[in-house]
Design a protein that fits this description.
The structure holds three protein chains of three kinds. Chain B is an alpha/beta fold. Chain B contains 13 helices and 15 strands. Helix content of chain B is 40%, strand content 19%. Chain C is an alpha/beta fold. Chain C has a single domain (25-248), classed as Rossmann fold. Chain C has eleven helices and seven strands. Chain C is globular and about 50 Å long.
């Protein structure tokens, strides 16, 4: 792997920022070069949110991307707006729990992830984003699971949130081979 | 590879603030403005805990003048703002230069003119390098391209400001303020105790104690033209020395390049990727990244070889640095511009496409 | 052996001031520096000069001082105070500087309860720039920018700064004094002393307004200036203590 470019997009409250930062932390824990760049401004409040995560063996050049290896589309506007950014042969993860449209692209790998249904099934209705994160990591191999679990323990779910870790790991592991 | 310092993942704005504290700046005066409000927030949380002082000013005018007062009194001061706020601070910048008061200032710049927008911009290049305030003065301006470089720069800037007795500016942009990258943080330098200031900065106003022969005055007014002229000439001797000592640039493959791209800050990173795209297309592009914007690293342009057909300045403005690029290149090679403005950011592909087109026209 | 009954205070530098005959800046300078000297604080003090006639106060006051940009002295003093919490800090500002271009800075310094003292010289006119209308210029008073006299409809009424400041909880001591008669001057010195004492006690922001003269720009003789002050200014700007630490609590 030289550089993997991931793009997470959805609406505020869907855990877009959390997913992006968790991958970035995991990449750092693995000693890789990484850059996280979020959209910012009024759109952060309730509107669309997106972030770019780049993981690379070399120094990261541009933090701004024009194409992505993996688009994580958490809602319909994100799918419509960013589908064209996926590299030919790249991956598109669609949160089918709330997106009922089909992607138009045929030159990419599309993975349908019913995040809400799956997280409910696993008894952790708040774990929808961890389901999606697990799918993205599985599809791209950008970081390994141990690093993500370390991020959960040391960064994402500390203090009182620590008790949610087993349930979140369960969601994250759903797409494990 | 050994890894002596553990890296931490930090948002740009928080890393900038941490770096200034670790550099020894224990006084911060600020006013909220996007996209740098995380800095005053961080400072309000962190500085008091560590024995420093945070004060929220009534305006950027208030902030820069508090910074001037604290600096004149010998404190190590850091301030930050974004474009319109930095504009308000220009009165103080001019004053501090004349009064020779150290200060580290950070612009997390956004698009203008006017209130403009909150997305990244580089259209404060003139303001930063030409001086937005009145009169003859100069401010060393450094533009980082990564969070790590910004951290190292701000840390060093605390020292530079003290050594040169002048404000020193770090010119970042909204991308750098908001993005996160792993950084190795430098060691905390000790804060100077107020009782030790007089010994360290014998010019500072601290109260002279028992001997009024040591009375200090920090000022900028000089009513006699000959006196003022002497003072400005004196300041410019210092600035000429700075031109020799503070020029910094990074250059890549400019000796044998078909075209040379010039960009600073985040745009330089996007451009670095554009250089790779151009290479796939069979065009050898060199890159000059000015790190010091003032003094502008003219010397870096002397390395451009005879093969180069065009020099292209890539900027988030309608073309401001290009004036310095033209001065540096002279008439020997045409100089062109690739730009986006208003908070729009070009992708590496966009820069590569436009550079290829320009190259095709001049080849 | 002869005993001197009146001396040049060591709080002042032995230089001629640049002030006009009949101007009361000299008196105010003396009251402040003499008081600080008598309190043995002169070497422990940092002063901030404004823009205006007293921009060069640092030449006359034997005190570590810095200049400040127009109106910004309270912000500058707020910065100084943070670096030297044990020292005495004051600003010395005229009415154009403080009551016009520097209103934001003075109001917020007072609101924050900054532990420094502001000495406010109110002579109802811009001095240094040549007699233009100040925010404190009286109704009907002529100036170079109100040549037929200040009109309320056009320029509003003069600002009573001490009253304004005394509405702010951070201000613990606000007094207006005048520099026209020996009795008033003695009273003014007491006000200076109280302000410094309250500052030393760390109680909050302290503010002394001096009703002052400007015979040059008023177009009157020095002695008539004193009379003009008494007849016109004191009626609009009443003397007295507007706020004390007891009230501020």
């Amino acid at each position: 792997m030289s550089a993997a470019k991931l793009f997470f997009a959805g609406s505020g409250g869907q855990g877009i920022i959390l997913m992006g930062q968790m991958v970035t932390y995991a990449a750092m824990f693995e000693g890789k070069n990484t850059t996280y760049y979020p959209s910012y401004g009024p759109e952060m409040r309730g509107g669309t949110a997106n972030c770019t995560v780049i993981v690379s063996d070399r120094e990261v050049a541009s933090p701004i991307i024009y194409e992505t290896d993996c688009l994580i589309a958490m809602n319909l506007p994100s799918l419509l707006k960013f589908e064209s950014m996926v590299k030919p042969g790249g991956v598109l993860l669609v949160n089918t729990s709330i997106i009922d449209a089909k992607p138009a692209r045929t030159d990419i790998r599309v993975l349908e992830v019913p995040t809400t249904e799956l997280s409910r099934e696993l008894g952790n209705p708040r774990g929808a984003n961890m389901i999606m994160l697990g799918a993205a990591i599985r599809a791209t191999g950008v970081v390994n699971q141990a690093a993500i679990e370390r991020v959960m323990r040391e960064k994402a779910f500390t203090g009182k949130k620590a008790e949610t870790i087993p349930a979140n790991i369960k969601c994250f592991e759903y797409f494990k081979v | 590879m050994s890894n002596p310092v553990e890296k931490v993942l930090m948002k740009g704005n928080e890393a900038f603030a941490e770096a200034a504290i670790r550099g020894g700046a224990n006084f911060y005066f600020g006013y909220p403005i996007t996209p740098q409000s995380e800095i005053p927030e961080f400072m309000s949380r962190e500085l008091p805990k560590r024995g420093g002082v945070f004060l929220q000013a009534e305006s950027e005018l208030g902030a820069i003048n508090m910074a001037y007062g604290a600096g004149a009194a010998g404190g190590a001061v850091f301030i930050s703002s974004s474009s319109p706020g930095i504009a308000l601070m220009q009165e103080g910048m001019s004053f501090l230069c004349s009064a020779e008061v150290p200060l580290v200032a950070l612009n997390v710049s956004r698009g203008g003119p006017g209130i403009g927008g909150i997305q990244p911009g580089q259209a404060d290049y003139f303001q930063a390098t030409r001086g937005g305030g009145n009169g003859d003065y100069r401010i060393p301006v450094f533009a980082p391209a990564s969070i790590q470089e910004a951290v190292d720069m701000l840390y060093e800037a605390v020292d530079l400001a003290k050594t040169w007795q002048n404000p020193v500016m770090v010119f970042a942009d909204g991308i750098m303020g908001q993005m996160m990258e792993p950084v190795a943080l430098p060691q905390q330098r000790p804060f100077t105790d107020s009782k030790d200031i007089r010994a360290e900065k014998p010019w500072a106003v601290t109260g002279y104690g028992n001997d009024d022969a040591n009375k200090n005055v920090v000022k900028s007014l000089r009513m006699q033209p000959d006196d003022l002229e002497r003072h400005v000439e004196y300041l410019f001797e210092k600035y000429r020395r700075a031109e020799k000592e503070l020029c910094r640039a990074e250059t890549h493959d400019v000796e044998e390049a078909d075209l040379v791209l010039v960009a600073f800050g985040t745009v330089a990173r996007i451009t670095r990727e554009a250089v790779e795209i151009l290479a796939w297309r069979g065009i050898k592009a060199g890159l000059i990244r000015p790190i010091s914007l003032w003094p502008f690293p003219h010397g870096a342009f002397d390395k451009i070889g005879a093969r180069t057909r065009v020099v292209i300045s890539a900027e988030l403005s309608m073309g401001q640095m290009i004036e310095d690029v033209r001065l540096a290149v002279g008439k020997r090679i045409p100089v062109e511009l690739i730009h986006r403005t208003g908070g729009m950011i070009p992708t590496s592909l966009e820069i590569a496409d436009r550079a290829e087109k320009i190259y095709g026209e001049v080849k | 052996m002869r005993t001197p009954v009146f001396e040049y205070t060591k709080g002042m530098c032995r230089v001629d001031t640049s002030y006009c005959p009949g101007c009361t800046h000299g008196i105010a300078h003396r009251l402040i520096t003499e008081t600080l000297f008598e309190m043995e604080l002169i070497g422990e003090t940092i002063g901030v000069a404004p823009i205006g006639c007293s921009v060069q106060a640092h030449k006359f006051m034997n005190i570590d001082m810095c200049e400040s940009a127009h109106g910004r002295a309270p912000a500058v003093a707020s910065g100084i105070r943070r670096v030297h919490p044990d020292k005495v800090v004051f600003t010395y500002q005229g009415d154009g500087d403080l009551a016009s271009i520097g209103t934001a800075e003075i109001v917020h310094a007072a609101a924050r309860g900054e532990k420094f003292t502001t000495f406010f010289i109110n002579n109802c006119i811009y001095g240094m720039t040549g007699g233009q209308m100040a925010p404190t210029t009286l109704l009907g008073q002529r100036s170079t920018t109100s040549q037929d006299g200040r009109r309320r409809e056009q320029a509003g009424a003069p600002i009573r700064v001490s009253e304004l400041i005394s509405t702010l909880d951070g201000a613990v001591y606000v007094e207006r004094v005048a520099l026209d008669t020996p009795a008033h001057i003695r009273k003014a010195k007491q006000a200076v002393k109280k302000a410094i004492e309250y500052q030393r006690a760390g109680l909050g922001f302290t503010f002394v307004e001096f009703l002052s003269t400007c015979p040059t720009n008023w177009g009157v003789t020095p002695s008539n200036a004193m009379k003009w002050l008494a007849d016109n200014m004191i009626t609009y700007y009443p003397l007295g203590v507007l706020r004390t630490p007891e009230v501020a609590k």
